């Protein structure tokens, strides 16, 4: 099924897209380049739908059916914020497939928050040149095509006057190391804009990347070698973002069970107590929940083999410190080994003799109420003696093995 769908972009601009396939299938967003429309992706969109994918094929602002803003707002950051707005309106995290200008937009839009916004990124024909003469020649060619076209052109020619690419390549290179999701980088072997040392430098900074040069292709791989590109794209998606539902059954791989549990988003806590020798101890845990309001009870689950486990099992008092987004380094510190955790962490002695981490989202000082065995963990139930919280902070979240933060639509 295909229908035209509208998204609200940056500053309320209307963005038009083809919505193709079932929304229950894994989603793909297609982003075209400058001087193009979503029509350039039609063959790719059909192949994706036939491969069981839900496709959002969108026109950039000032292109095709999307709004051409009266104020001529075509700066690079407006395009970046358009994509971030679209991603906020998606039901699930999609894989973004982006060509040329679309690739620049997607790279910057996903920097720092890639894992919270998208499941993967495919960059096609990403220009990595700073040569102003090449850029000017391409812009003039597209401008001439628009002005000589009979009827309304496919894109607003004001784009070429308002879009400033100075500094864009530097921003792209700076963003590369922050794209912590699977990336497929595709370019034509004969292209002088998307290959070479600059492209190699960019690719080498991506944490999880596959780079492929398509033989006998120049700048436009998707047009010149459509079938080859479709095969590469679908293979990447099947491996990195599969359609099937993962399944665990008792007795099978424990990692699959762990991954299933990871689908439940949690906060992150650090459990602290004082050892018998008077030294503070603590560890990171996300198996934390409330148990009762009257009496006020909570519980945490501690691995039996945790270094601080024996102390926590016997401690008469302990504290649960719920972390805020600025405390991700603290979480990593208390999850690791071989480091003086408290020396690098601001803390103070709580009213009831437990270490309390200052600056936390909330802290619960507890008396031990009960301890229960639970397989390879033990369940520590605490009676809350005192709770403090800071309502102006946002929580540090954990989902599917990665830190997250709240995303406000």
Automatic annotation (TrEMBL):
Signal peptide: none
Keyword vocabulary terms for this entry: Hydrolase, Oxidoreductase
One Gene Ontology term of the molecular function aspect: hydrolase activity
Protein name in UniProt: Alpha/beta fold hydrolase
Domain Flavin reductase like residue range list: 261-405
SUPFAM superfamilies per UniProt: alpha/beta-Hydrolases, FMN-binding split barrel
InterPro entries to which the protein is assigned, alphabetical: AB_hydrolase_1, AB_hydrolase_fold, Flavin_Rdtase-like_dom, NADH-dep_flavin_reductase, Split_barrel_FMN-bd
Sequence intervals crossing the membrane: none
Highest taxon in the source lineage: Bacteria
Pfam short name (any one): Abhydrolase_6
């Amino acid at each position: 099924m295909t229908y035209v769908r509208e998204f609200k972009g940056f500053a309320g601009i209307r963005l038009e897209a083809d919505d193709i396939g079932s929304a229950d299938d894994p989603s793909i967003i297609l982003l075209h380049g400058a001087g193009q429309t979503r029509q350039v992706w039609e063959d790719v969109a059909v192949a994706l739908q036939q491969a069981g994918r839900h496709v959002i094929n969108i026109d950039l602002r000032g292109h095709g059916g999307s709004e051409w803003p009266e104020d001529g707002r075509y700066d690079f950051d407006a395009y970046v914020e358009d994509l971030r707005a679209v991603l906020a309106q998606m039901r699930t995290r999609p894989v973004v497939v982006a060509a040329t200008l679309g690739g620049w937009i997607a790279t910057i839009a996903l920097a720092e928050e890639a894992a919270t916004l998208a499941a993967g990124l495919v960059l096609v024909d990403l220009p990595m040149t700073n040569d102003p003469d090449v850029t000017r020649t391409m812009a003039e060619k597209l401008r001439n095509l628009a002005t000589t076209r009979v009827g309304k052109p496919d894109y607003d020619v004001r784009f070429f006057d308002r879009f400033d690419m100075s500094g864009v390549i530097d921003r792209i290179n700076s963003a590369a190391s922050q794209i912590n999701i699977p990336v497929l980088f595709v370019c034509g072997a004969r292209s002088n804009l998307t290959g070479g040392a600059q492209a190699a430098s960019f690719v080498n900074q991506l944490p999880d990347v596959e780079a492929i040069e398509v033989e006998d292709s120049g700048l436009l791989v998707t047009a010149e070698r459509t079938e080859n590109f479709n095969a590469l794209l679908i293979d990447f998606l099947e491996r990195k973002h599969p359609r099937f539902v993962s399944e665990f059954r008792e007795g099978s791989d424990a990692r699959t069970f762990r991954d299933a549990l990871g689908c439940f988003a949690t906060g992150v806590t650090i459990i602290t107590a004082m050892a018998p020798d008077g030294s503070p101890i603590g560890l990171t845990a996300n198996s934390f929940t409330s148990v009762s309001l009257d009496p006020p009870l909570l519980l945490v689950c501690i691995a039996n083999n945790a270094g601080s486990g024996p102390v926590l099992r016997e401690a008469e008092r302990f504290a649960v410190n719920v972390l805020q987004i600025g405390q991700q380094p603290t979480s990593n510190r208390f999850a690791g080994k071989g480091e003086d955790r408290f020396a690098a962490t601001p803390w103070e002695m709580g009213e009831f003799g437990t270490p309390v981490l200052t600056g936390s989202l909330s802290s619960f000082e507890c008396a031990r109420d009960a301890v229960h065995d639970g397989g390879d963990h033990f369940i520590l139930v605490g009676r809350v003696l005192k709770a403090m919280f800071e309502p102006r902070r946002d929580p540090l979240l954990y989902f599917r093995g990665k830190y997250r933060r709240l995303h406000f639509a």
